[in-house]
Design goal:
CATH architecture of one domain: 3-Layer(aba) Sandwich
Oligomer: single chain
Number of strands: 11
Low-confidence stretches: none
Shape: globular
Number of helices: 11
Radius of gyration: 19 Å
Largest sheet: 7 strands, parallel
Strand order of the largest sheet: 3-2-1-4-5-6-10
Distance between the termini: 40 Å
Helix content: 40-55%
CATH topology of one domain: Rossmann fold
Length: about 325
């Protein structure tokens, strides 16, 4: 099939493209004006922005399946910027796809773990994009599938591997509420399995699937301490209570909005790390026939090996 991948230079986009190429699919990759550090000769890389309708009209020609992975992913920032990329960019892409009659539009969202009033602008705009896609499917027959991954980690991960490792090295990390929140770990290979199945399976148009490793026994404290043992051979010693962390988060956000000082913690991040919402992958197991192949212990082992091979630890 002819596949378009947006967000092609991101952690997930890169892993997805590798798998599609292994499966002998034809791939067009949208790159957001960045230099390509992982170039594959058989992939057609296009530099552009999903907020540019001219670009989306070009890249969706002769495409069978779209994997929409591009997004602005941060726990703070102006809502207008999130809306422009996460919502309007999705609308641009869908409009172009409808012109060219694509067969399937797979949207990478994220598991909603927070009540609506306290959602970050990232979560709010992802939810708006989901609602728009579901309406397009129900009202106009647009062929969508929504994939909601948990916390995606593994070799190559920046957000949930390299950033905490860097913070541990600098001794600038603390647990919140003793790390008691659930780490909905999602090993990268398991997520890619689910995305490939979403491309291949019949009778799943219009469906939304939660994708994790299916294990809710690992806390954020467990995961971050596992990384700390890799890096410093010791557990994380610092801890903030949730009320104190929220106070610091609101204070840091005030400084950000007034002086543009980058916050090292936000209220959204505090709620994220203390979240204890349970997530079921039962629907994905039944309809997608999704079965996570890599469990937490194996995922941590592979992540450590990658960090060592890259001289990060």
């Amino acid at each position: 099939m002819n596949c378009l991948v947006t967000g092609a230079t991101g952690f997930i986009g890169t892993a997805l493209i590798n798998r599609l190429v292994e499966n002998n699919e034809t791939v067009i990759a949208l790159v957001h004006h960045k230099s390509i550090t992982h170039h594959i000769d058989t992939v057609n890389y296009v530099s552009g922005d999903i907020t540019d309708k001219k670009i989306t009209d070009v890249i969706t020609r002769n495409i069978d399946v779209v994997f929409h992975c591009a997004a602005l992913v941060k726990d703070y920032g102006p809502k207008k910027q999130f809306y422009e990329i996460n919502v309007q960019g999705t609308k641009n892409l869908v409009s172009s796809c409808k012109k060219h009659g694509i067969k399937r539009f797979i949207f990478l969202s994220h598991i909603q773990q927070q009540p609506k009033p306290s959602m970050t602008n990232y979560s709010k705009t992802k939810l708006l994009a989901e609602k728009y896609l579901i309406d397009e499917c129900r009202n106009n027959g647009f062929p969508i599938i929504i994939i909601r991954p948990g916390n995606v980690y593994g070799p190559g991960a920046t957000t949930w591997v390299l950033r905490p490792v860097d913070s541990i090295k600098k001794d600038r990390i603390a647990l919140i509420d003793h790390g008691s929140g659930i780490f909905h770990h999602t090993y990268i290979d398991n997520l890619i399995d689910a995305l490939i199945k979403a491309m291949q399976k019949d009778d799943i148009i219009g469906e939304t699937f939660n994708i994790t490793d299916g294990d809710e026994t690992v806390s954020w404290g467990d995961y971050l301490n596992d990384l700390s043992h890799m890096v410093a051979n010791r557990p994380i010693s610092k801890n903030l209570s949730k009320p104190v962390a929220l106070f610091i988060g609101y204070l840091m956000m005030g400084l950000y909005y007034v002086f543009r000082i980058k916050p090292w913690v936000s209220p959204g991040a505090v709620r994220f790390f203390t979240n204890k919402t349970h997530v079921s992958i039962g629907k994905a197991e039944k309809l997608l026939e999704y079965q996570p192949r890599i469990d937490y212990q194996e995922g941590i082992k592979r992540t450590k090996q990658w960090l060592q091979n890259k001289n990060f630890i």
